[in-house]
Specification:
By secondary structure, the protein is mostly helical. It is built from eight helices and no strands. The protein has helices at about 5-30, 35-55, 60-100, 120-150, 165-200, 205-220, 225-235, 240-250. The radius of gyration is 22 Å and the shape is elongated.
Length: about 250
């Protein structure tokens, strides 16, 4: 139980660190969306949708379609990469099970500290496979919502005679935001696969990667300048009201 015990301690700690950070991020997005990159992008997407749909001449329709097409291409690229890597991992797992060597990964290598048996190796490959499959499904949902938005955003507000313009903009913005949220979750599934991949070399690299990734994601996710600048200029932020709407729209 010497080296194997590290897997039972460091791996759950690393996973708890990643899950705890994202739980904190979700809470911050819901309460203070203007201090996060995801919240700020959601606010600006609402402004963009209203700007596109309120244009009476429809001259921004091509711009809207091109913008959403670029998002669809990004999601398609990630989905294709995820399913390709999933197939590769599945082939490696099936090849290892047919080999039946039982030596594990890098048998006798001093750099691999932790469980290196056949069962442990299968569990590690399965965890990587789950990450890529989840990334594929999330990006697939992102493509779905982006496809819906490409049609909805080109319907002018004056065509909705029986509905308030604000409700129409809210619905289209919600659809666009859901596509962006699923894309962000798909990207984070790729992020999550990096520490899981390093788990192949032992729980210590995995835990170190989780710690480093949480630190890096904090600087990528937090945006204090938007809220501070707006409060400094106007006292009470107008985006705070929109921010509450953004927080209520989170998945």
């Amino acid at each position: 139980m010497g080296k194997e015990a590290l897997d039972y301690v460091l791996v759950p700690l690393g996973l708890a660190l990643m899950v705890g950070y994202h739980a904190w991020l979700l809470l911050r997005i819901r309460r203070r969306p203007a201090t996060t990159v995801i919240g700020v992008n959601s606010i600006n997407r609402r402004i963009w949708v209203r700007h596109i749909m309120e244009e009476p001449s429809g001259k921004h329709a091509v711009l809207a379609v091109q913008t959403i097409r670029n998002n669809i291409m990004a999601s398609t690229l990630l989905a294709s990469t995820a399913i390709t890597l999933s197939s590769l991992i599945a082939v490696l797992m099936s090849g290892g099970s047919r080999g039946g060597g039982g030596g594990g990964l890098l048998p006798g290598a001093p750099l691999v500290v932790g469980a290196t048996g056949e069962a442990a190796l299968s569990a590690k490959f399965f965890a990587i496979l789950v990450c890529f499959l989840v990334a594929f499904l999330l990006n697939l949902q992102s493509i779905r919502y982006y496809s819906h938005t490409s049609t909805l955003v080109n319907v002018p507000l004056r065509a909705h005679r029986l509905r308030r313009p604000g409700l129409v903009v809210d619905y289209v913005t919600g659809t666009l935001n859901r596509g962006s949220y699923f894309w962000s979750l798909g990207v984070r599934a790729f992020y999550f696969s990096c520490p899981v991949f390093l788990w192949l070399f032992g729980p210590i690299p995995m835990f170190a990667a989780c710690t480093a990734m949480v630190c890096a994601l904090y600087f990528l996710d937090v945006c204090e300048d938007w809220e501070e600048e707006h409060h400094g200029e106007h006292g009470v932020s107008e985006t705070s009201g929109q921010g509450k709407d953004v927080g209520e729209q989170q998945v």
